[in-house]
């Protein structure tokens, strides 16, 4: 052995492993290997001094004090039955932005405002053509023209929308 004083033996009676990075138990001040460093692993008699946990009520998120020898689940259950100040009406609602399209009851997480009419819409009705936008007199962008062409192709009305009409709409956009 080159380094006889390096490391310490585990204090667990069944282990006694030589550990070069021993861990001290902060409750009983004994030295343990990594396998026996936890209170439960070496059956620490002083663990009650250090192992203080305060459960939190899952409904009102308030810490619930638990006395020594009491079971945390039972105490939290009693708190929920008697002292809990949980009010479901105060719970934060996530999907609050309702679609302005007539007949649509969909709600979204964030606002999707139309650039032309400034109304809020769901993802399905966010484009001006999808919600029959009132302010359709504005010129259409190239992306808008592409969307119109896709919609026309899917509905079979591609012959109604000619490329000259789209070119005229794009020229109107470039002038402004």
From TrEMBL:
<protein>
    <submittedName>
        <fullName>AN1-type zinc finger protein 2A</fullName>
    </submittedName>
</protein>
<dbReference type="Pfam" id="PF01428">
    <property type="entry name" value="zf-AN1"/>
</dbReference>
<keyword id="KW-0479">Metal-binding</keyword>
<dbReference type="InterPro" id="IPR035896">
    <property type="entry name" value="AN1-like_Znf"/>
</dbReference>
<feature type="domain" description="AN1-type">
    <location>
        <begin position="93"/>
        <end position="141"/>
    </location>
</feature>
<dbReference type="GO" id="GO:0045047">
    <property type="term" value="P:protein targeting to ER"/>
</dbReference>
<dbReference type="InterPro" id="IPR000058">
    <property type="entry name" value="Znf_AN1"/>
</dbReference>
<dbReference type="GO" id="GO:0008270">
    <property type="term" value="F:zinc ion binding"/>
</dbReference>
<dbReference type="GO" id="GO:0005783">
    <property type="term" value="C:endoplasmic reticulum"/>
</dbReference>
<dbReference type="GO" id="GO:0043161">
    <property type="term" value="P:proteasome-mediated ubiquitin-dependent protein catabolic process"/>
</dbReference>
<keyword id="KW-0677">Repeat</keyword>
<dbReference type="Pfam" id="PF25403">
    <property type="entry name" value="zf-C2H2_ZFAND2"/>
</dbReference>
<keyword id="KW-0862">Zinc</keyword>
<feature type="domain" description="AN1-type">
    <location>
        <begin position="4"/>
        <end position="52"/>
    </location>
</feature>
<dbReference type="InterPro" id="IPR057357">
    <property type="entry name" value="Znf-C2H2_ZFAND2A/B"/>
</dbReference>
<keyword id="KW-0863">Zinc-finger</keyword>
């Amino acid at each position: 052995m080159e380094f006889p004083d390096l490391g310490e033996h585990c204090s667990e009676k069944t282990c006694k492993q030589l550990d070069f990075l021993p861990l001290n138990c902060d409750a009983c001040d004994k030295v343990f290997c990594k396998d026996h460093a936890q209170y439960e692993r070496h059956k620490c008699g002083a663990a009650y001094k250090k192992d203080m946990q305060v459960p939190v009520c899952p409904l009102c998120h308030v810490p619930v004090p638990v006395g020594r020898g009491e079971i945390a689940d039972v105490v939290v259950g009693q708190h929920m039955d008697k002292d809990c100040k949980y009010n479901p009406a105060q719970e934060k609602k996530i999907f609050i932005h309702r679609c302005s399209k007539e007949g649509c009851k969909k709600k979204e997480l964030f606002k999707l405002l139309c650039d032309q009419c400034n109304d809020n819409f769901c993802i399905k009705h966010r484009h001006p053509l999808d919600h029959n936008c009132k302010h359709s007199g504005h010129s259409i962008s190239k992306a808008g023209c592409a969307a119109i062409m896709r919609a026309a192709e899917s509905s079979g009305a591609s012959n109604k929308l000619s490329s000259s009409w789209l070119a005229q709409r794009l020229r109107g956009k470039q002038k402004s």
